[in-house]
Each structure stands twice: as structure tokens, then as C-alpha cells.
Batch of 3 targets.
Target 1
Amino acid sequence: MAQPVLHVADEGRQPRPLQGGRARLSRRMAHDRGAEAGRAGARLNWCMRTGGNIYFLAKIGATDGLSFQQMAGSMTGMTEEEYRDMMIKGGRSPEGNRYLGEDGDAQPQHQPQGAAGKNKEPDSMAKISASFYTSHVPAIGAAIDLKKTGEAYWQPLFAGYEYSKEWMKENTPDVIFLVYNDHATAFSLDMIPTFAIGTAAEFMPADEGYGPRPVPKVIGHPELASHIAQSVIQDDFDLTIVNKMEVDHGLTVPLSLMFGEPDAWPCKVIPFAVNVVQYPVPSGRRCFQLGQAIRKAVACFDDDIKVQIWGTGGMSHQLQGARAGLLNREWDNAFLDRLIADPAGLSEVPHIEYVREAGSEGIELVMWLIARGAMSDIQGGPAPTVKHRFYHIPASNTAVGHLILENN
Ligand code: DHB
Ligand code: FE
């Protein structure tokens, strides 16, 4: 009786059932896959440099719909056809054996991926242009959706965002990296990721009990999000990677505040959810350090795009218990002062102070430290410019704070 075949080490051929499938691919699809393979190859090369091995990476490539020939070819500077021909003819020639030492031909500078990986002009990499901070009170979203922004109660609040809306028209980024907390909407107590990055192509607005808000779906940036996940996880931050998620008011209200009621949001958005709902929540210090890791990740994304990082939630508010309705104008404004001028010192403030001074939901403010940590002055660059600062009490139960810091 034949033994079951557990594994056939044959990189040159597709497994049989797939081979038939591949043969049926239209020429156009095959062509598109070739172009796709080039882009994905660059990403896989980056994964290799940061410690991936080819069999693990093959799984990522397969998820992207690439054949092994496309993946291995792209990682060794060959086309799919060249790689396949080489393997059919018996594999890599012993002539081609590479040696690493001295000035051997396996040195990165002699390899095609080395050339691709050479330092690019700083101008051609992604950049964080500004950080942006705002409360995300759901009633603000309802006021916009129900056309109440001109009412006496709401008018002073929306007036505080007028400058920012104009500024944003001039400074629309390609991508917003939007730090917010999920309010037990996408994640219940079944599963509580401390930090979750949305790597999907799109995210639908969630139904939080009143039907989904009438706002556009959020278009993500899977490539940049995956790149950030890869880089930040290698920098010791354990992110949860989320490929399917609905987004709640924490994310959609800030977008509505800035962009009104468009048919489509004017840029891509990477949702980044932080658990500040269920203890234990991350410290301000950890959030601040995470922001620095995010900045580093964005700065080595090989595309000339402008990224803004938004921190949302807060300021002082408590929605439940004996202290419901708590607001603290003084503490909030000191927080804004320190966020601008002493973020490292501010990041040392313990949870208990947020809760005591800013209420049980005021802890949302730790998320602002992620955005602040991603600014260039934290890495020795010049101080950011304060483009706008606004504080207003109240919106619903909450003190509303807003800040725009531009990188210099
Ligand atoms: C309110 C504020 C929030 O940040 C939130 O998530 C829910 C409600 C409020 O003030 O009503
Ligand atoms: Fe909230």
C-alpha cells in the first residue's frame, strides 16, 4: 500500500489541484498578478530583512494570492518565468553559490534586493505631517447627523472646529492613523485586545443601538497598516491584527467633525483601537513609547505619502456612578499644556490620577500620548507648531478638547 505523502519538496511545481486552477487563469489576471507580485515581493524582502524565513513568508504570499514561483522569484531578483525555468532545469546552478564574507556576491549591495533596499531619498518615504487631538462624544455625531449644529447649545462647540476644518482642507493627508477606543462595539468582553490595528481594506460604521451612523464607510490602507504592524511588533509592541471590524463613534465622530457629511471620506484611515474600557489598560508611558515606534514605522514606509496621526477621546468625563457628570477644566487645560510642552513628563502620570481628576472615562486621554509620541520633536527634531487649541464645556457629559500640532 502506498505511503501517504506528507510533504513534497518541490518548489518548481504547483501542487496538482492548484495547477489546473492556475491554467484557467485569464492572461489579464496572470498579468495583474505579475505586477502584484513585484509589489508584494518588495514587502516580502522587507520581512526577510527583519527576520522572516521563506516558508513562513510563503504563507503570507499565498494569502496575497501569489504562487511560490512569484514569491521566490521576487525575493531573488528573478521573474516568475525565470525562476520556474531555473527550477525545471534542475535548480540553482552550483556556479551561482553565493558566499557572504568579504566582498562576496551574497553581500546585499551585490543583490537586486539589496539595491532595492538601499536607502532612498528621505523625501520619497512616508511622513507624519501633523498630530490631531479631539474628543469623540457620540452626541456630537448625532448633532451633525440630525442637522442641529446651528442650535444654541451646539453652535459654540462647532465654532471651535471652524479653523481646523479650513486647515484640514489645505492639509488633507493621504492617510489618517486614527487612535481611538472601541466602546464594547467591535470587541466585547469575549476578547479585549490592548492594541488592535485595522489592516482591512474597509471598515463599516457600527450599529451602536440607533442603527449605523449615516456616514461613509472607512477605506483602510492595508499595505501601510501591515507594514506598521510588522515594524511595531518587531519593536516589542504586541498588536492584535484585525482584518474585519466595524468602527464606532470613537472613530467616526472625529471624522465627521473635520470633514462634515461627504459622500466619501477624503483620505484613507487606519483604525487603531486601544483598550481603555476594561482594566488593565495600557499606561501613558507605554502609549507614548508606542507612538515613537509608530513614527519609526511610518518613516520607513517606501511611499511618498503624508500621514496624520489622530488621538481621540476625553477630556474629563464620567458617565456612571456617584461622580457621573464630573468635569475638570483646570486639570484638562494642564493636560493640554503638558501635552504640548512636556509630553514625556505627562506620560508618567499614573492611571489613578486620570480617574481621580478626569473621571472614569477620562482615561481615554492616554490615547493622545500615542499621537504625541509620534511627533518628530520626541526624536530630537524641532518643537511642533500649535496650529489650533480649543476647549469647551460641555458636550453631553464631556469636556471637549482639541489640538492640532504640526511637525516642523
Ligand atoms: C460620552 C462621551 C464619550 O467619550 C463616550 O464614548 C460616550 C459618551 C458622553 O459625553 O455622552
Ligand atoms: Fe469615548
Target 2
Amino acid sequence: VEASIPEPQREAWKKFSAKEFSSKEDFEKDVVRHIETTLARSLFNCDESAAYGGTSLAFRDRLVIEWNKTQQRQTFADPKRVYYLSLEFLMGRALDNAMLNVGMKDIARDGLSDLGFRMEDIIEQERDAALGNGGLGRLAACFLDSLATLDYPAWGYALRYKYGIFKQEIVDGYQVEIPDYWLDFNPWEFPRHDVTVDIQFYGSVRKYMDDSGKQISVWENGEIVNAVAYDAPVPGYGTKTTNNLRLWSSKASHGEFDFTKFNSGEYEASVADQQRAETISAVLYPNDSLDRGKELRLKQQYFWCAASLFDIVRRFKKSKKAWSEFPNQVAIQLNDTHPTLAIPELMRILLDLEGLNWDDSWAIVQKTFGYTNHTVLPEALEKWSVPLVQNLLPRHLQIIYEINMQFLQYVERSFPKDREMLGRVSIIEESQPKMVRMAYLALIGSHKVNGVAELHSDLIKTTIFKDFVKIYGPDKFTNVTNGITPRRWLHQANPRLSELIASKLGSYDYLKDLTLLHKIENFVDDKDFRKEFQEIKYANKVRLAKYIKEAQGISVNPSGLFDIQVKRIHEYKRQQLNIFGVIHRYLELKEMSPEDRKKAQPRVSIFGGKAAPGYWMAKTIIHLINQVSKVVNADKDIGDALKVVFLEDYNVSKAEIIVPASDISEHISTAGTEASGTSNMKFVLNGGLIIGTCDGANIEITREVGEDNIFLFGNLAEDVEDLRHGHFYGGFEIDSQLKRVFETMRSGTFGDAGQFSALVNSIVDHGDYYLVSDDFKSYIDTQKLIDEAYKQQDEWLTKTITAVARMGFFSSDRCIQEYAEEIWSIGIIWTF
Ligand code: 73E
């Protein structure tokens, strides 16, 4: 349908075309208009939530204008676009980000004050868009920010979950999950009821020969579910580019009810059908780094991949270019294996719907896709049972088998003597039942595979993908070390530090080129700079202390050393090592004379993070932290020497308060298990130091900031296997100081010891897979070093400033440039 306004009428349009506010008065006018008309509230009925609504809608208008222009510009230029397929986008709040990115926050602050509101309170009204679990989802959000900021034409595709990651409450020390229904009022999304796609499940495949003797496959008689697009604008910083995040929502294909059932009296059945369809996009799976193989999850994956590909192909076909041009117009990045079904789906579109032959289709597919691997943990590697795929996606299973057959024939020709290799690299695992190995399918169907930090990218080549390096050669594999957006993680979370840096560098340019930060090293001896830097850190700690008091009712002294570990709770991330270290510290303090205790470096140990609802060991760790917190904080002997805090419901907006307030943050995974980590980067960029293992991006952070400005400890990745082996065959002695910690726990100091026995036994009796005992001494010795180092406040300050200055490498802008050049081969569309 031609939807353009005819030429003669365009003048009228242009005359009345929406304009962006640019003065305080116009901003206020927009806010009041939205509150009075869009929200139907009044002067006498306007609370902070209405003010948040009005402010958001005023900024939304601005974004929409730029968003429309960006899309128009991109449609006109029709460049190669990037599509980032991710089941998770952990966006957090949008308003503050929108204000900073369009650069109107000061005007808005003044305007809101005229209207009787405080900016900070208004920002606080917004609920987080929490469509993700942790690092993988937050990385996707940082990437969107960088893509827009760098003016790349890019779209994110995901699901519009009704429920994001659950809210965590701590009741009697235990985690309780509360559903996160976040869509009550979401001014940032636009339903596109005209952009829908029919998605098929189940059914069967019919094959026949057409007149020319060609084999045709038809997938038919399935169940149809409707995908409806919801769009959210993604503004770049200091640019007019506003990209799009498209979220798919599922709906029954025949509208509200099935009227045939409805009319024949099967009211309930018709409602049930509708609900079953809507279930697909209802909830985000709350497992971080764990594959549970649930059918509904596979449905989510296909629903989202099929809708996104339909959309991408539809856009491509508008240009009427030849199919061979597809990879020159489209780059699709697979964020982990979750979107791997996009590979057989694109094959199906090209073969069955567009009539291309196998070889041409396969060449297009391989050139189009890139695959990012985020983990080597075996329990996180996705596999789907063949019978499940057969039932849900019969045509896709055929295509997967065909891909596998051609691949295995190629391997056989290349390695005729290595028969065992075929079984090892086959996409199909010959188990009972057979399983589809998604990582292999993703790798085989992509032209590049990347890990997310150097160590991790090396590890995938020597472990899970070792055979594939032999098959394809090393050039198929590359590294792109993760990064973070300095807009949210410095400018927004730590405005005073951002301002101080800008005042020394002469502008905020460094927010667009973070390598410019290196120049603040010139001010490391500048007295005023140092004083201000230190005051900012202190003020951020005061802010967090205030929050801790409000949220958890615990008083902490902001002059103590703030030691923070916030991330998903997982055995491999070793929060247990941290809390055992805290118990050890408690015991040492108890043994000291009151005078010695006064001399000890006061510490505030802060934890935060969610456990997957079915992950009992992680929940036990949370419980232990809370028990220790209760006992230690109530102990009059201890006072300010040690406080332990578990912060409830860690999320992106809380991270923005927590991250700027650390003296030390903990990134202490068993070497070789944390692919990258990204909060490590955030903490250092905000003037905190790290205690960490030689794992993930910690290694590159060390390279950048220098060994003197980070506290490393523990065994190396290359020794982990032998150590594990030794636990079973070499006779295994638990570290003596850790033993003492366990004895204290067993004596009931932190409540019924039975509650923690599984945790202790995993170390004592079950082989200590995560090397807690092996690393314990090194960990507490390093913590002692930190106590001493922190007492030398002047040197500490020098370390933190130096580290900040050397963090330029970890911008997600650098990261996106690397993807753009090495994986996507895309150009920029300039904005005017
Ligand atoms: O090390 C982090 C990494 O920084 C890694 O554990 C995480 O991805 C971050 C960004 O690269 C990650 N998440 C998942 N796998 N790796 C995952 C797997 C399944 C479901 C949800 C998340």
C-alpha cells in the first residue's frame, strides 16, 4: 500500500510538522500539555508519577522526531544494517538516559523545579526495563547505546516479555521471587499493530516434485501464533541517530477469541487458546548460564527468530536487489546460541519460500551470520532434544540434518583418517534421546565466531571448539573484548566525576572517545584535582550508605572500606569464597584485643544479586550471607570494624548507585569460568580498585591499568584441571583457615548448621569443583594487603586515579568498532 502523502499536500504537512522543544519554557509547556491531555490529570491532581509521565512524554516527543528522521534517512540511503538478535536487553531506566543523550537535562531540571518537582525524585519514579538476567543482557543494552552513538544503522530484536526478571525480596534471610509486571505505564514503547507476522508451530512437511522436477517442501497444518511488533527508540549520545529496538509480543492469530469455538459454547476453550498464544512472550527465563531445555523456551526462541527474520527479509525485498546482495545489506549477530534457529529459518525462507537452491542459500546464510559465544560452562551450552524439535519445527529439523550431513561430508573429505572426529563435531549428539548441539550449528552457520575477552576467546579455541579450529582454520575465530557505555556508567551514574574529568580535559568529548581519559593522568599530582576526586568518592559512599539505611535498615560508616560484590549468584562466581572470607575476618576480629580491633581497617562488605529460582546452592549462599550479616552487625564487640550487607533486588538502576561507591569490588570467579565480566570495568572506571582472579577481562584490565593498580590472587586457568583432578586422586587437604570457618559454621554461630551443609560438603566431600579451598589462603592474604594499602590513602588515591585514566579501552564504542570492521563490514550513515 502506498502510504505517502501526495506531493501537493506536503507543504501543509511540513508547515505543521512536529517541532522539538529547545527552551525551558517549551519544555514546561510540553510537560503540562501531556499531563493535562495525554494523562488526563490536572494541577490539583499531579503527583510525582504524573510528573514522571509528563516529563517522559515530552522527551519521548523529541526522540520520536529524531527517530522518524533517522529511519527515513536509513530507508533512503539503504545501507547495510546490523541486526542484533538477543533474547535479553537489560535496558534499565530510559528517562535519565534520554535526557543526557539529547543533552537537555539541565533545562529539564530547571523546568521541573518551576513546576514544583525535583529531578531526582522524578527519575526515581521509573521502573527498570529488566528484560535480562545479567551481563549478557546488559552488554546488549550497552551495544545499542554505542551503535546509535556511532551512527550505525542498527536494530535490536527481542521479545516483549510481560514479566522481566523477577523482583527479589529477602524474607528471614531467604530469597523470595516476586513477578515483575513492568508494563502498567511504559511511555517508551510504541505498539505497531500494523506490523505483525504469522508464526507457525508443529504441523508436518509435505514434499512433492514441481513441473520442472524440482523437490518442493511445504510446511503445513501447523498452529499459527501472531507476532506483534512493539518499538522503542534508542537515542545515541550527542548525535541525531535514534535507532530502533523491536520487541515481539505474541497473540492468538485470530484476534481476541476463536469465534467458532466461542459461538459453539466452548468459551473456555477459546480463552485457553488465546492464553496459550500469549504465554509465549509472557516471561523471561530467569536462568543465567544454565540451559533447562524447556519446550516453551524453544517456542520463544523460534517465535522471536522467525518474526525478526520475516521483518528483515521484508525490508530487504523492498529494495528489489538480487538475493546475492543479501549479505551486503544485512549483518545478523547472534547473541549467544539463543537465536541459532535463525540459521535454519533463513535457509527455509530461501529454499522453500524464495525457491533458491541449497548452495546459494547456504552461501548467503554463512555470510550473513556472526556468532558470539559467552560461556564455556558445560551446563550453559544449549542442546535441544531431537524429538522436541521434530514435533515443534519439523521442517527445521530436516534442514538441520541436511546442514549436518553436508558438513560431516566435508569433514570426512578433509580428515579421512580421523573417523572419531565425525562423532565429536556432529551437530547431532548420539545420545538417548539425540540432541541438537546449538553452539555447533551457530558456529557452522556463521562466518565469524567471537569470544568476549582474550582469555575466553583463546579458551574456546582449545576446548569446546578445538576440532572446529582444525576444520575451518583459526581465521574463523576472533576476539572482541567486551566494553561498557561510558554514558550510562560514568556520566549518568557518577555525574560529579564526569564533570570533574570534563573540566580538566576541556570538554565532554571523552564520552565519545574514552581513550582521551588517559590525559587525566597528567593531573594525578594536582592537589585540587586529587581533593575533588576523593571527595566525589566519599560523597558516592555517603549516597550508598544512605540507600543501605533506607533499604536494609543497616547503618554503615562511609569512611570504612567499601568492599562490594554485586552480580548473579553462582558457584563459579564464588560469592561463597567472599562470605567465608568475611567469616574469617570476623573470627580474627573477635580474637583481637579491643585496642587492636580499633586499629583494624574498618570494612563494609556489600553483596547483591539474584539466584535463579531453582538453583538451591545459590539460594543457600544468599541465606548464609544474610545469617552472617545478622550475627556480625549485632555483635557489639565488632561495631564499625565490620559490617555485612546484602542489598535486596540488585538491578541496573541500583547498580548506578552502587558502582560509584566502591573502594574494592570483587571479581573472583574460578580462573577460566567467567568469560569476561563487565561490572569489573564499571567499578574501575568509577574510581574503585579490584580484587580479582586471573580470569576474563580482569586480565586485560590488569594489562591496561598496570599490576600495581589491581589486586590479583589465586590459581591460574591453566592449572585448574590438574587441581580438580588432584582433589579426587591426590588426597585433598582443606585449607586450615577455611577449616576453622567451617567449624564455626558447624558450631551453629550462624544458625542451624544443617542449612549450610550442602555448601560446605560441596567443598569438603564433593571435590571442591570451584577451587574455593585452593584459593582461600591467597584470597585472605590479598585482602590483608588491601587493608594495608587502603591505610595509605594518598597512594590509594593515586592508584585509583591512574586506573581511571587507563580505562579508555573498555568503552563499548571500541567494541562496536571492532565488530563493525571485523565481523559486520558496515559503514556509517552521516547525520546532518
Ligand atoms: O562473563 C559474562 C560476560 O561478561 C558471561 O557469564 C555472560 O555474558 C557476559 C557478557 O559477555 C553470560 N551470560 C550467559 N552466558 N554468558 C547466559 C547464558 C544463558 C542464559 C542467560 C545468560
Target 3
Amino acid sequence: MEKTFLMVKPDGVQRNLIGDIIARFERKGFKLAGAKLMTVSNALAEEHYGEHKDKPFFGELVDFITSGPVFAMVWEGEDVITTARTMMGATKPSEAAPGTIRGDYGVTVGKNVIHGSDSKESADREIGLFFETSELVNYEKDSLKWIY
Ligand code: DAT
Ligand code: MG
């Protein structure tokens, strides 16, 4: 089954949104495969956001993601990468639809509450950056047959 990397950013942690965000993905029918509260080092932040290293906002992005704890997660399910992006909403909160996480909680493009992998390649890369294989849990959920 497909896996994606999702992360409640420091603003989401400080604003007590971890529970709400987990609940949305749980209710949707996705399966949690790993999760941890952690701080992101400068090196990890620069690696994670490597695709943006030449953008003018790169420094700000690294400072923000390292500014406080984040809640890193791996979620599993059919088309979870694309579906999670849809549930997150557009990058710019002003363009994120109401009902999406960023649409409901974000105001500025920098502090937009959640990160989610945008492709299979980035999901594999980001899961590998943030989690050891031993931190991911393989298990069956009985509700599976009512979802698929
Ligand atoms: P997303 O997080 O939706 O995948 P992205 O990968 O283009 O968006 O950018 C990563 C993060 O960088 C984004 O969540 C917020 C920040 N960011 C993007 N564009 C920005 C901009 N024009 N000014 C400031 N921050 C920006
Ligand atoms: Mg991105």
C-alpha cells in the first residue's frame, strides 16, 4: 500500500492542531504507520527542503521548520499521497479551500500548518529522511474491509 510523509509544522504544534490533523486522516480511512514529536536540525531541514535551496524564502523556511517541535507521521492507504495533498489544501492559504487543513487554519504562506509529500519519489525520500525502518509499524486493521 502507498505511503506518504506528513508533518505538522511548528505553528500547528503550538496551536494544538496535532489531534485535529490526526483525526482527519484517521476518519478518512488511512492507516498510521509511524509518528513522533521531534525537533528538526538545520541539516535535516536543508536536506528536506533541498528543492527550494535557490528560492528567496529558503532561509526563512529552514528557520521556521527548526523553530520548534514538529509532529512527523507516515500514513498509508490507496492514493494517500495525492489524497493527503487534497486534504491539506493549496500551499497559499488564500487559495486553500474551506474544509482543507490549510483552508481552515492557515493565514500566511509560510505558516501553513502542515507538510505533505507531493509525489511517490518525495514520499520515499522524506520517509527515509525522517524515519528509521524500525520506527514504522506493519499491522492489520479490522476496519480495512469496510474501507476498501
Ligand atoms: P507545499 O508545502 O505545498 O508542498 P512548496 O513545496 O512549494 O509547497 O513550498 C514549501 C513551503 O515553502 C511551503 O509550504 C511554504 C513555503 N513557501 C512556498 N512558497 C513560498 C513563498 N512564495 N514565500 C514564502 N514561503 C513560501
Ligand atoms: Mg512541497
